[in-house]
Give the backbone structure.
Amino acid sequence: MMETEGGAAPVNFRIRAGRRLSVFRSYAYPYMDRPNLTVLTNALVTRVKLKGARATGVEVIHDGILRGFDAAHEVILSLGAIQTPKLLMQSGIGDARDLRHFGIDIVQHLPGVGRNLQEHLFLGGCVWEYADERLNEGRGTGTFFAKSNSNADTPDLQCITGNSAFVSPDLDAATTAPCWSILPGVVRPLSKGQLRLTGPNPMDPVDIETNLLSDPADLTAATRCVELCRDIGNSHAFRELRKREVLPGRLGKSELENFVRNAIIPYWHFTCTAKMGRDDMSVVDGSLKVYGVDGLRIADGSVMPRVTTGNTMAPCVIIGERAAAMVRESHGL
């Protein structure tokens, strides 16, 4: 559906015995008894240890104590698209001008660290009251992909149905009746943000600028997606479920654009802040190795050049699988 003209399907969930099955539960937990695997909880990685331009290990605060761990072969970062670039910058890998501002010694000038931040647009919400409150019992969740522009190569919209009123905190649903929703989403956004350090210390927060809707094309796609969701929700096919439309109702162009701005909620699909590539803003090469630093790879969503059209969990798993294969090949494991 993400690569053709679109389509609809039930939402995929990883559930076993009534509980969500996490990536950790699938990949790491079955091997916790192995002597060569240690999972250290309540730990904060503060810095990559470097000798010249080679990564030799990491420093970690564990139970309030600073500890160091050395790597025999290489260090692999998999902290996600927010914490991975933060750690790189605090270790002296990033835009030299920004790092000097905080007195951080420069190990490798890579201006792309923390740039190119991408996130799917997610809107809450398009909401309807159930015609009969008994209709909301046991209904599943579905999703569909579509194009905002018929000339697009692949779908750029993903919408999710929900069995309640999913509404942004900046909007007022003005109802306490049982509701259902269709949540519009733009999954091929052109807007890009960045993140910056606020200080040199590990506990200093990171400044995240998502910059959503900074590209006018994203606002156009989002408004068309809302219109599509309204067309579906108000269609003849949904008449038995629908008592009335709660949000957004019929709006003019400027009112609809304001609705989109107020309806945005986090999708938590942050990616692309240490992207793979060959241009001046790239951070890793095709083997996930950080440019200019030996013995350091990244294996998480930050290496994506652009955010994937669908949800990011499965692509991140594939990045991990490929990284594992590369490590095995490099070290003859």
About this structure: The chain is about 20% helix and 25% strand. Residues 141 and 161 are 6 Å apart (CA to CA). The mean pLDDT is 95. The chain has two domains: 7-11+120-263, 42-117+274-331.
